[in-house]
From TrEMBL:
SUPFAM superfamilies: Ribulose-phoshate binding barrel. One of its GO terms (molecular function) is tryptophan synthase activity. This is Tryptophan synthase alpha chain. Its EC number is 4.2.1.20. It is an enzyme of class 4 (lyase). Pathway: Amino-acid biosynthesis; L-tryptophan biosynthesis; L-tryptophan from chorismate: step 5/5. It comes from Deinococcus reticulitermitis.
Amino acid sequence: MTAVQGKMVKAGPGAARLHAAFDRAKAQGRAAFIPFMTAGFPSAADFLPLARTLLDRADIMEIGIPYSDPLGDGPTIQRASEQALAGGTSTRRTFELIRELRRTHDTPLVVMTYINPIYAVGPAEFMRLAREVGVDGLILPDLPPDQDLEIAALAEQHGLAVTFLIAPTSTPERVKLVAGACTGFLYAVSVTGVTGTREGAALGEVPRMLELARQHAQVPVAVGFGVKDAQTAAQVAQVADGVVVGSAFISAAQAGQDVGPLADQIAEGCRR
């Protein structure tokens, strides 16, 4: 159980599936590989084979709901969201695409969404739809746990795990609050700023941040932002339970490349 707004929140079946995926990866001597892809990118039809290619290699997959004002995302994912929205991919269409993925893959799935799409559908209806199509958890980048407004409680009622984010600038008090609110995994942002591929090492302040996070987290800790290849994945895998990669795959898909070889390389880099 974890504490959200002073209330104890019990982890449900979605959290259990996510934790089992992390445990399997750890038993095999590696960090969990968590690729990200924006739903409906580069088109609704092309998204499905692209996502399945990543799912074939993933321990957990993160699917982003296209949103017009994604403040935490860099230009690569912003453009992917714009393209998906222009192609007609809405929140409800995202759930339909996830339902199709569930026909072929049982890999745990988490949805990354800002709070506005949840309220546009209605929080209770959003959670119902998410669980109905096979979502295991939610990543909520713009919803501080101390301003949760019962979202985590609704997720719990539908068996969904919740994940919040910390950054290198997070204070010890903030890390404690966020870590205690997560039921899926804790998402540690490797750099201050938005998502996107960066030059150089991905670690930076990550080891110090993770040392602090693990003093409070009762869930696995995954690291994202700035991981783009096997080398940077290997660096992060030395200190994290999971490695999240998104912009690199979107850039490859935008260039018309097969994302499979890059996913194979990064998955191999997740080995310790």
